[in-house]
Design a protein that fits this description.
- Helices cover 1% and strands 49% of the residues.
- Strands 18-21-24-28-31-34-38-42-45 form a nine-stranded parallel sheet.
- Strand 15, helix 1 and strand 16 form a beta-alpha-beta unit.
- It is rod-shaped.
- The N terminus is likely disordered.
Length: 485
């Protein structure tokens, strides 16, 4: 070096450029630092939510054991070889651990969906009615046969979320090919008996029991749990299915002792079995509706009252809480030994709105059987529509009423045959005719149409409107000498 040479030294400024990127799971946040320095990067430090700085030689760091769905403030400090530093920060939220989802595409088939999956470190479980906790690896379909509760849970090891599903079994299925032990009352796995479906039906709302084919009743079906039940047919071809009395069943087919019962699109077939009870027995404080396309037929009661139906309030009179409504049903070809070939009512409320009571009779129609269609004692009978025809009985081929109130505002009573009277109003009973038609009925002895007992305690008749005609033999209750078409 020459003596006149001047050595000039210039410090190179150490500058750090720092950027960060982040990614999150439900319980962790990973941060990647990208730092550039002319002197090189000596180390990195990381912290979360203004906590303690954590030193690292690596440019990547994961914060673990975090709460899902929560916002975190992440900071990174890069330190150069000359002890220069740069800080970068970012706010990021961990992913929310999604709750399990329940669905019920088919009655009794509960599907649990785990949106975050069960094969990526998550643990999926469910528990039915506080029983065993079941661990699963995928979405689940669970079959349940009765009301209950399912709790589904997903956990990522730190966080967990649960969903509770309350099962209400209000649609249950019964098939002769079903099984009461292994079935669930679903379409795919029906019960075998109506009794089983009834015991499993919910009490919190109206339930429907579907007959998937014809069922034989070998034992009385006791409805005694104060439930609201619809009994109907299920068929993909619109068939009306039957409940048929077994050859050895001499008691009731159905005994509704408490609650509400609707029969819809179903046949109760007594199968002409010589029984000691009607097909359908309705006790006090029950409401029973026989609606569209329901048929009660071929009952044979070899005991006393009610070939098809017996409804009773157990000694009460005019009980408004013991109700039978016929609206679209047919009651036909039933036989009772003594009273009420079709229906026998004691202390009840009976309303015929629409439908047909036809071809019912007595075992001893010429000697002691009364009320071929309907027999009442201490009851309110209202007829606003429907037809009562072709029934047979000793007294009152269509209706006999004792200590009862009968009101007719519509409907047709025709083609019935008796020894005395189509409508017989007996002791302390009243009949108000305010519409409808009573025509072309016959009696072999007297009073082809209306007969009002005049002996004490006498019956009472009030005429307001309606047609009474063509009955043989006629009496002074006829309103016309000829019947309109």
């Amino acid at each position: 070096i020459k003596e006149d040479t001047i050595l000039i030294s210039k410090a190179i400024e150490d500058k750090i450029e720092l950027t960060i990127s982040t990614s999150a799971t439900t319980n962790s946040i990973t941060v990647i630092a990208n730092a550039i320095s002319s002197s090189g990067i000596k180390s990195y430090e990381y912290r979360i939510n203004n906590g303690t700085w954590l030193e690292s030689k690596e440019n990547i760091h994961t914060f673990e054991n975090l709460e899902s769905g929560k916002e975190y403030n992440i900071e990174v400090r890069a330190i150069s070889q000359t002890e220069k530093e740069a800080i970068a920060g970012k706010t990021i939220t961990t992913l929310l651990l999604k709750e399990p989802i329940f669905s019920e595409a088919n009655d009794g088939e509960i599907v649990i969906t785990y949106p975050d999956g069960c094969n990526n470190g998550n643990i999926c479980t469910y528990q039915y009615n506080n029983g065993e906790i079941i661990t699963v690896t995928d979405n689940q379909m669970i079959e349940v046969g009765e009301d209950g509760t399912i709790v589904a849970t997903i956990s990522d090891g730190i966080n967990s979320v649960s969903t509770t599903y309350n099962i209400i079994r209000n649609n249950l299925y019964v098939s002769s090919n079903g099984n009461d032990e292994t079935g669930y009352g679903t379409k795919a796995k029906p019960y075998q008996t109506i009794e089983k479906a009834y015991t499993k039906a919910t009490t919190v709302k109206e339930s429907t029991i579907y007959l998937m084919n014809n069922i034989t009743a070998n034992n009385t079906i006791n409805l005694n749990e104060n439930k609201d039940i619809i009994l109907t047919s299920y068929s993909e071809t619109d068939n009306t299915n039957s409940l048929v009395r077994g050859n050895t069943l001499t008691s009731y087919m159905i005994n509704n002792s408490t609650g509400n019962l609707t029969l819809e699109n179903i046949i109760l077939d007594g199968n002409n079995v010589h029984a000691e009870s009607p097909i359908l027995f309705l006790n006090e404080n029950t409401y029973t509706l026989l609606s569209n396309n329901t048929t009660i037929k071929n009952g044979y009661n070899n005991s006393v009252e009610g070939g098809g139906i017996k409804v009773t309030s157990n000694g009460k009179i005019f009980d408004e809480n013991t109700v039978l409504v016929i609206d679209g049903a047919t009651i036909t070809n039933n036989i009772a030994k003594q009273n009420g070939g079709g229906i026998s009512g004691s202390g009840a409320t009976i309303n015929l709105i629409s439908g047909n009571i036809t071809s019912n009779s007595m075992l001893t129609s010429n000697t002691q059987g009364d009320g071929g269609g309907i027999h009442t004692w201490g009851s309110n009978l209202t007829i606003s529509g429907g037809t009562i025809n072709n029934n047979k009985g000793r007294h009152g081929s269509a209706i006999i009423a004792s200590n009862s109130k009968v009101t007719m505002t519509g409907g047709l009573i025709s083609g019935n045959s008796a020894r005395t009277g189509t409508i017989v109003i007996w002791n302390n009973s009243s009949f108000i005719l305010n519409g409808g038609t009573i025509k072309n009925n016959t009696a072999s002895a007297s009073n082809g149409g209306i007969f009002i007992n005049t002996d004490s305690p006498a019956g009472k008749y009030t005429y307001k409107s309606g047609v009474v005609c063509g009955n043989t033999p006629a009496n002074n209750y006829e309103t016309s000498s000829s019947c309109p078409n």
